[in-house]
Amino acid sequence: MASSAIILPVAAVLALLAAAGEAAVFTVVNQCPYTVWAASVPVGGGRQLNRGETWTINVPAGTTAARIWARTGCQFDGSGRGSCRTGDCGGVLQCTGYGRAPNTLAEFALNQFMNLDFFDISLIDGFNVPMNFLPDGGTGCNRGPRCAVDITARCPPELRQDGVCNNACPVFKRDEYCCVGTAINTCGPTNYSRFFKDLCPDAYSYPKDDPTSTFTCPGGTNYRVVFCP
To answer: Which interval of the chain is the signal sequence (predicted)?
Structure first.
């Protein structure tokens, strides 16, 4: 009995280490009726996706501060330089930095506390395309965020930008919308964040929107990001 009590924790640790060492497979699918230029940082860079096309990205275990998003209205030359109407990342096809608001974001950090993946859809930087971000096998986890509504069609005039819908923080740059400065410990929902939350309850609508917007799955889970589900 004593030996088994020692062996079981060791086995559990080894299992966790094995899971923590597995890369996650992210499948990015464009179901929009138009071309998008998908972006992924810090792994992946970028790729043009015509309607119905798929991009598979192997993301190393332990990757943090990661984002996947769609860019629209792009033009690139043969060297991969150009610009996008929404989601532009410094005028290059192969992104190495985050995109410019407004853009719908799939955010994630892999193999974190208790070997859990943390992931979400964020509208803090606004909205440019509908998106689902769901587990795609590997661990049995099956719950993730969805934001399939065309928010742009209902966007308040003061938030309209580049033909899509920005959020209040990038537009007005005020502490109460960005949860910084004088509002870093006191900010809460605003009329603008409630507009986004009512349409996409799973998604982050302002920076402190954690309780209803952060999802977890065991490390080793694969994921599917779908534009225009």
So the answer is: 1-23
